[in-house]
Design goal:
Elements lengths: L1 H14 L9 E2 L5 H11 L31 E3 L1 H4 L23 H10 L3 H7 L13 E8 L2 E8 L2 E4 L2 E2 L11 H12 L11 H9 L2 E6 L7 H10 L3 E5 L21 E12 L2 E9 L23 H6 L8 E5 H7 L2 E6 L14 E9 L21 E5 L13 E9 L2 H6 L7 E7 L14 H4 L6 E2 L8 E8 L2 E9 L6 E9 L3 E5 L5 E2 L14 H11 L7 H13 L11 H11 L9 H21 L7 E2 L3 H7 L2 E2 L2 H11 L5 E2 L1 H21 L11 H9 L1
Parallel strand pairs: 1-4
Antiparallel strand pairs: 2-5, 3-4, 5-6, 7-12, 8-9, 8-12, 9-10, 10-11, 13-20, 14-19, 14-21, 15-18, 15-20, 16-17, 16-19, 22-24, 23-25
Helix pairs in contact: 4-7, 14-15, 15-19, 16-17, 16-19
Length: 701
């Protein structure tokens, strides 16, 4: 219950703008300014209790508390390592980032790419921090994590061995921004060891909030050069690398002076006139040094002799500085992988480039309610969360010359690195895209059922279901309305995710969810003369001398009735359910049911029994929790996925089956809650206001 309350509070904060770049979430509820002020006033250097200078902050296995590797590690402040420590000295450059004894070269490559754009760097590394003015042993950094920006505080105690930094460090040894940034990122992910192994694109995303595409160049799509050109015009960050087949190939240099295993940046894609034809060129930068490509179109190569001075000038023909041109055909032959990080509109300050339009949703897969698995699981597939995107305007300058709407879909599962050190595997995730039927277009207050999703084929799908942090693909579809169904590959897997859509043109997007509502039909008023004499006799026998049925008597009656039925399974009605029924139907507040109230209950029980049997598809005597949405709808209650998750948590058994007594108890509870809300709702606002006493009385009742 408290975790649900925390999640709702988090949603409210997001609606208020908390988590945006302008209002980053204070990680671990630590406020940089107030903590720094406390340290300055007390004259003490900051010591972070949330990420202490202890072995457990280093790792869990090879760097774990009981590992011999960490036995001689000493945590030291920069002032103890050199006489004149600097945070950033004469600008952040690639030489500030030298790898240490941690396999996080993927992260360091992303940090190195930050130095190419000082505006993006300033978002991650807030300016004005130093070891002189107002120094208090405390620094802070900002990262994007699963849909929101975090402001992360660290102290400057760094792990060392023999008075040298154990992990990332600057070449000069006196600059510490990169080491402190690495520490802050380790704090977010639980420990330093959680950073071992990864993909540069993950760092790109966490430093920009962008969405990543990855292309294997041996299978490069036909229009990839045009995609690169468009991406650069949209301000995207591009990286490329040459795969290694073994550790021996790390840092190996090819015959044409390309370094294997390195992360390069792509900084340009242009066409030039060469010997009467157009040649596609790609500009590449090695952020680690001056080792450059020596093949065709490299600096000083003969190909440039046949290019006009005007075109050379336009292409910013580069010198010996680690940046070089090469033909696109050589690029896809020499490099193995291209990564494109498409930036959010708020990241790009310049009006010289275009902007993607970004849309983002948070969601959950929960066993028994919304964890339906992929299309291979027809019984549960439609239970998955659903989102709609409405594409109206075609691309201005289509890459393939054909009209259509280009958009990216990225599905990211949360907390992958934390799962890593908790020895939990990432889920295998993906998504399918379906065209919304004509009769449902323009609506977001629906949840597509099997009658819609199983009768048609997906119009598009992710390239693969895979156990990575994110699955992202590019699509081009005709204008229309499409439902995106994110899922785990197998059903019945819990998880939390972020779904993002980047579109070239503006698009309307929303979650596909039913509006919460109830169609409660009040039973027709009946008098005692309308009640069947046999029923009256039965009631008198149950009620006894006071002619009323208490909750205790009601439970006995209901359990006696269902015990004689072979078509429903039940563990027996509980006293709690009995009291709930009485409180709903007791109109004279006697805490008991009279004849007419009991007659009304009997009608409800008959109605609920019919609905229950309709949705017991396998005649097992129980109902699958995935069928609860349809059963509730038939009973007049329209609920969305969060409410359905709460119902399943409360009423399903360990096998996620709902028996008859739980079903009745659930519907009775829903009716009571809807009636209570409507009685207290403020002027049809969809909200009610309670003080503490009122809240406690209603919640306990």
């Amino acid at each position: 219950m408290t975790s649900t309350a925390d999640r709702l509070a988090h949603q409210q904060k997001r609606e208020q703008g908390i988590g945006t770049k302008q209002h980053a979430v204070k990680f671990a509820r630590q406020d940089y300014e107030s903590l720094k002020q406390q340290c300055v006033e007390s004259g003490r250097l900051f010591e972070d209790p949330c990420f202490p200078a202890e072995r457990k902050s280093l790792g869990y296995d090879k760097l774990g508390p009981y590992s011999s590797t960490t036995r001689d590690v000493v945590w030291m402040r920069p002032s103890e390592l050199c006489s004149n420590p600097k945070f950033i000295d004469d600008g952040a450059t690639r030489t500030d980032i030298c790898q240490g004894a941690l396999g996080d070269c993927w992260l360091l490559a992303a940090i190195a790419s930050l130095t190419l754009d000082q505006r993006i760097l300033a978002r991650v590394v807030p300016p004005g921090q130093s070891f002189t003015d107002g120094y208090a042993g405390i620094f802070h950094f900002q990262f994007w994590q699963f849909g929101e920006w975090l402001d992360v505080v660290v102290d400057d105690r760094l792990p060392t061995r023999d008075e040298k930094l154990l992990f990332v460090h600057s070449a000069e040894g006196s600059e510490f921004w990169s080491a402190l940034l690495e520490k802050a990122y380790a704090k977010v992910n639980g420990c330093y060891e959680a950073l071992a192994g990864g993909n540069t694109i993950e760092g790109f995303e966490d430093f920009t909030g962008g969405i990543a595409e990855v292309y294997e160049l041996e299978k490069a799509p036909e229009k990839l050069f045009n995609i690169m050109k468009r991406a650069l015009k949209l301000g995207s960050m591009l990286g490329c690398s040459i795969d290694i087949t073994s550790a021996y190939e790390t840092e190996a240099v090819t015959a044409r002076k390309l370094v294997k295993g390195h992360a390069y940046s792509v900084t340009g894609a242009e066409e030039v006139h060469f010997q009467g034809r157009l040649v596609q060129l790609v500009r590449v930068r090695n952020p680690w040094g001056k080792v450059e490509w020596t093949g065709p179109w490299s600096d000083g190569s003969s190909e440039w002799d046949d290019v006009s001075r005007e075109e050379k000038s336009k292409l910013n023909h580069v010198a010996e500085d680690g940046e070089f041109w090469m033909s696109y055909s050589d690029f896809i032959r020499q490099f193995s992988k291209l990564e494109i990080c498409n930036l959010t509109p708020d990241t790009i300050m310049s009006d010289d480039v275009g902007h993607w339009n970004q849309y983002q949703f948070e969601g959950m897969w929960r066993v028994g309610s919304t964890a339906g698995g992929c299309r291979n699981n027809p019984a549960t597939f439609s239970s998955n969360p659903q989102f709609v995107v409405r594409l109206e305007d075609v691309d201005d300058d289509p890459l393939d010359g054909e009209d259509g709407c280009t958009f990216l879909v990225g599905l990211m599962q949360k907390d992958g690195r934390q799962k890593k050190w908790l020895d939990r595997n990432l889920a295998t995730i993906g998504y399918a895209i379906y065209e919304v039927p004509d009769e449902l277009k323009g609506r977001s207050n629906v949840h597509l059922g099997p009658d819609v999703l199983l009768r048609q084929r997906a119009v598009a799908m992710c390239s693969t279901f895979i156990d990575t942090r994110e699955v992202c693909d590019r699509f081009k579809l005709p204008p229309g309305e499409y439902a995106i169904i994110p899922s785990t590959f197998k059903p019945h897997k819990n998880g939390s995710f972020i779904l993002r859509v980047f579109s070239e043109k503006q698009a309307a997007t929303s979650a596909l969810e039913e509006d919460i509502d109830a169609e409660i039909k009040e039973e027709e008023e009946v008098s005692e003369s309308d009640v069947d004499p046999h029923f009256k006799h039965l009631f008198k026998h149950i009620a006894g001398n006071d002619s009323e049925v208490s909750a205790f008597e009601l439970v006995k009656v209901l359990n006696n009735v269902v015990s004689h039925r072979s078509d429903v399974r039940t563990d027996g009605f509980s006293l709690e359910t009995g009291r709930l029924i009485v409180s709903l139907l007791d109109k004279d507040e006697s805490a008991k049911l009279g004849l007419l109230e009991f007659h009304l209950l009997w009608s409800k029980i008959q109605k609920y029994l019919e609905i229950f049997k309709n949705h017991d598809s396998d005649n097992s005597g129980t109902m699958s929790s995935h069928e609860m949405r349809g059963a509730a709808t038939e009973a007049g209650f329209h609920v969305n996925s969060p409410v359905l998750q709460a119902i399943v948590s409360r009423y399903a058994d360990a096998q996620y089956a709902i028996d008859f007594d739980s079903f009745v108890g659930c519907l009775i509870k829903l009716e009571m809650l809807f009636k209570m809300f409507k009685a207290l709702e403020k002027a049809d606002s969809g909200k009610m206001e309670l003080d503490m006493q009122q809240w406690l009385c209603l919640a306990i009742y």
